[in-house]
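User: quick one, fold this
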Amino acid sequence: MPHSADRLRVLTYNIQVGIDTRRYRQYVTRSWRHVLPFLGRRDNLDQIATLLRDYDIVALQEIDAGSYRGAFLNQAQYLAERAGFPNWHLQVNRNYGPLARHGIAVLSRLPPTGIRECRLPGFLPGRGALLLSFGSTARPLHVLAVHLSLGQRSRLRQLRYLSRLAVHCKDLILLGDMNCPAWPLERHSGLIHAGLRVADTEGHSYPSWRPRRNLDHVLVSSSLKVHRAQVLDHPMSDHLPVSVELDLPPALAASLADTPQAA
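Assistant:
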């Protein structure tokens, strides 16, 4: 169950497959950690799991589904179990067999009533989105977790695709690594038409050791009131996590409270 009946705590975090990066040069000197196992990865994941325990819904990007580089550990399952999440769903977007299985995941305290895996358009394959619904069918909460492309042209195509999904969702949280600052999202006509706004953190999430860019965002429908939004000082990746607390309208809070709990 969520920590509070009328307040929801959500988090988005690009965890860089459990690699902590503290300098630009480590993209070169520690590049081998993207393809080979190393002893500190599980300790890094444990520290991430400690942070996740305080949240109701978590979106994770750059997560490994179990391959040689991560000692065949399904990181989504591991983090869910360590952080006490009874529900988790993983989408593999780049599958290199035993070498690497790269994807995104959503962990939640409430059981989802619907899950849809989406393949995002782009000039290169390998980007996806997870659309989950929670609560009753009469008033569901939708959560759309994404990891968008680096290239602007592909990213714009992906935002148009997401806008077409979002316009059908009354109560929506869109969150993830957008690979762009807030202003293109705030000015995107499709997202505006869908009634989404960026939860302003007044901080930057990248790079984690000297944050200068806000690449990670949470967007919410007008029905969801932002109580608090912040970038957290938790440098266990090359990104920092973004945390948002939301006040739920009574009807939506009642819908989530009525969701049958898993045994």
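User: anything notable?
Assistant: The first helix runs from residue 26 to 29.
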